[in-house]
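Translate structure to sequence.
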């Protein structure tokens, strides 16, 4: 009787372990891009080297009551970049976020920024009329 109970306990433990392993992962999911410096093509991810970065100095001004940041981005990656989006987060003198804004760098959003090339950007706090003490810039691209 003791061997039967032990056998049932082992079979139950194996069954439960099998169910847990079966629901914990899905190997059929497609690979997705998790960072702006990777490109997903069908089922494999191609990792890029380098970044699209703010090139040199930026300048903050006030334009009709809106904080405006102008500057230039440079493609330091190993491939052309599309939809280069510059996102500004604006802060007051206490470090609290008081607004955000974004703009696409270059002539149009889908104009490629070739490897090594630079292009200007301008981001405003519109529709928030603010005079930010500080700002932070983030860049995303495809």
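Result:
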């Amino acid at each position: 009787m003791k061997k039967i109970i032990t056998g049932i306990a082992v079979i139950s433990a194996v069954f439960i372990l099998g169910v847990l392993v079966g629901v914990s992962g899905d190997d059929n999911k497609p690979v997705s891009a998790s960072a702006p410096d990777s490109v997903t093509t069908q089922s494999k991810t191609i990792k890029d080297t380098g970044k699209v970065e703010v090139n040199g100095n930026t300048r903050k001004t006030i334009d009709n009551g809106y904080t405006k940041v102008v500057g230039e981005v440079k493609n330091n990656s190993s491939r052309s970049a599309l939809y280069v989006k510059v996102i500004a987060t604006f802060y007051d003198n206490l470090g609290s976020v008081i607004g955000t804004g974004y703009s696409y760098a270059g002539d149009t959003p889908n104009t490629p920024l070739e490897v090594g090339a630079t292009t200007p950007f301008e981001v405003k706090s519109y529709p928030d009329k603010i005079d930010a003490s500080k700002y932070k810039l983030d860049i995303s691209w495809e």
